[in-house]
Amino acid sequence: MALLLPLIVICIVSGVTADANADAPMTRTHVASLPGFDGALPSRLETGYVTVDEVNGGELFYYFIESEGDPGSDPVLLWLTGGDRCSVLSALFFEIGPVKLVIEPYNGGLPRLRYHPYSWIKVANILFVDSPMGAGFSFSRDPNGYDVSEWFDGHPEYLANPFYVGGDSIAGRFVPFITEKISEDIEAAVRPTLNLKGYLVGNPVTGEIIDNKSKVPYFHGVGIISDQLYKMILEHCKGEDYDKPKNLICRQAMARFNENTEF
């Protein structure tokens, strides 16, 4: 999946014009308002499907939101949510999007939305994508098609903008590979050439071994566990599985660690 996502990016910036028919590589709709939000949206919102796998009927759904600053020159950020297979709406409504859900008891009506003054849309154009297949509104007519293959179509005006790839949670596993593949394509002079500047991951899942081994120095580094407990774990837990320590002193130290880090 990670190696195929850059093909989707190339599709969007290649300038292919989309028609709203079944054979089109891309269908898109301009959304002027949202139920539950008073007034016009703070910036242009476009949603659509990209046909990413014609053989299996794979369709990838996206939300593209223009920057509130200068869309023509502000960076373009491709954002992928982890999960696994969580809808990217979670990032749009709860994390970095321009509107947020109003948290209140359900009264039988539509959920209310409010403006998010600290959205990343203030400084960047963001392309939120439901990926991989089966996440959010992305789907495949054939179960064999639940792999990402292509994406991005019809926005050549953003080709020169600084481009970033970002995501959180399980996206931490594939965002670096996507970025690496795009970088390799740039070096190989694959057209169109993206103005790749970097990538970012939030609270990323990178792998059980790495994540498990890094939790002790992380919690010490942010001041949640004491120097004394940190040194105790380093001294008595060498080579131990933090989740199932065999050493008695290590087991006691990790019990204290777990008590201090449960939220």
From TrEMBL:
Domain of life: Eukaryota
Assigned protein family: Belongs to the peptidase S10 family.
Pfam families membership: Peptidase_S10
Gene3D superfamilies on file: alpha/beta hydrolase (3.40.50.1820)
Keyword check for Signal: yes
PANTHER family per UniProt: CARBOXYPEPTIDASE, SERINE PROTEASE FAMILY S10 SERINE CARBOXYPEPTIDASE
Biological source species: Oryza glumipatula
A biological process term (GO) from this entry: proteolysis
UniProt-recorded name of the protein: Uncharacterized protein
